[in-house]
Amino acid sequence: MELAGKRVLVAGAGVTGKSVVAALSTLDARITVTDGDAGRLSELDGLGAELVPGLAEPPDGTDLVVTSPGWRPSAPLLVAARAAGVEVIGDVELAWRIGQGLANPPKWLAVTGTNGKTTTVGMLEAILRTGGADAVACGNVGYAVLDAVRGGHEVLAVELSSFQLHWSNTLAPHASVVLNLAEDHIDWHGSLAEYAAAKGTIHARSATVIANADDEMSVRLAAEHGAPSANRVSFGLGTPRAGELGLVEDLLVDRAFVADPAHAEELCALADVRPPGPHNVANALAAAALARAFGVPADAVRKGLHDFTPGAHRAVEVAEIGGVRYVNDSKATNPHAAAGSLLAHEHLVWIAGGQLKGASVDELVAAAGGRLRGVVLLGVDSPVIGAAVARHAPDVPVRQVSSGDDEAMTAAVSAARAMARPGDVVLLAPAAASLDMFRNYAHRGDAFAQAVDALKAETQHDGG
């Protein structure tokens, strides 16, 4: 990508903005950075960019705008740039274009969906590395894709959000998957249709298009957005047909990337997939399909999945106390994610609540109601979840923890303990965002873990 001497405006001075400035500096671009937060902007001082707070339109002579993914398309600066005929792209698109200019461009294995993205790219990275590839997980997982491209890696396991995909227009992955699609981020995109369309663009120029056969929207987006020339593969939790990955009894098997599709090749056992649960088996199948598209052998899939360590706050068992397991899935920040977590356990006490962002929980509660011993609610939208429980599981006891409690999570764990029986799971799977009470989902998960640790210490002391 030829940017030497070009005037590039970077919109946003956060983590993405810093990565973009570093990359543009190596290309000798003339860089201007703008942000509404002057303090955050000042953190880029000394990087060779002109820092201008609060721009509402691009400076004269601007050749390109690179926006951080959090900026909405309706932001005045971005609207003004497009009206002036200035191209607006995101950091992912910039990374793709820079990568294509390298002597050995990295292969992209791209993952999007409403839920399961981070787990899937983590599994994929583990499989690829086991198979001997120089691979790294990047994108929306903390390691910027620009930094990964500039690092010279052979293959990238890339997590892409709908925001990032909205600002990408030439991205052509080696293989791509939309894991699932449910209502989310409607406030940013404006409608479910626009959200889905952004997700679907991941397939537009992909060589291998992978769909989740058990998710109607995943199948539809693959059909609507995948190129006619693309290799088409699907995965699901049933017995696979030719061209699919799936389950045969307790084995994950492949009938897509094999010499003879009449015969399935064993990839691994269900016991090799962690965390457990149908949603994570689906994630493992998606990761296996992407890795197989890159040419990874079956034995590397098995070992990679077996050795994979789940990320923090994703269905992590914190402790077992009195025969009750306490599981932290604070990352379940919407009802679709929480459903996968709830349905992975036979009997449980559910700790839920926070900011639902307008999402409905009726379908979730109806599906999980028969498994619930009790429900403990905290956060601003607790009444919405409580009403759904009253409609669909009226016999399940509900305890409301006041957001004004000094130690709300401690109170929630204590209330859950009182409802649980030996053999049950106390599950934090909030189905909602966390910012009404916590800094982020990680802070919420940490609070849960600390409350469980305190309960365990108290129990051990009482027992002694």
Explained architecture:
By secondary structure, the chain is an alpha/beta fold. It has 17 helices and 20 strands. The strands form three sheets. The chain has a nine-stranded mixed β-sheet, with helices on both faces. Strands 15-16-20-17-18-19 form a six-stranded mixed β-sheet, sandwiched between helices. Strand 7, helix 6 and strand 8 form a beta-alpha-beta unit. Helix 5 crosses helix 11 and helix 9 packs across helix 10 (216-225).
Topology, element by element:
Elements: E1 7-11, H1 15-26, E2 30-34, H2 38-42, E3 50-51, E4 64-67, H3 76-83, E5 87-90, H4 91-100, E6 107-112, H5 117-130, E7 135-139, H6 145-150, E8 155-159, H7 162-166, E9 175-178, H8 186-189, H9 192-200, E10 208-212, H10 216-225, E11 231-235, E12 244-248, E13 251-254, E14 265-269, H11 278-294, H12 298-307, E15 316-321, E16 324-328, H13 335-342, E17 348-352, H14 362-368, E18 372-377, H15 382-392, E19 398-400, H16 408-419, E20 425-428, H17 441-463
Parallel strand pairs: 1-2, 1-4, 2-3, 4-5, 6-8, 6-9, 7-8, 9-10, 10-11, 11-12, 16-20, 17-18, 17-20, 18-19
Antiparallel strand pairs: 12-13, 13-14, 15-16
Short synopsis of the structure:
This protein has 464 residues and is α/β, with parallel strands linked by helices.
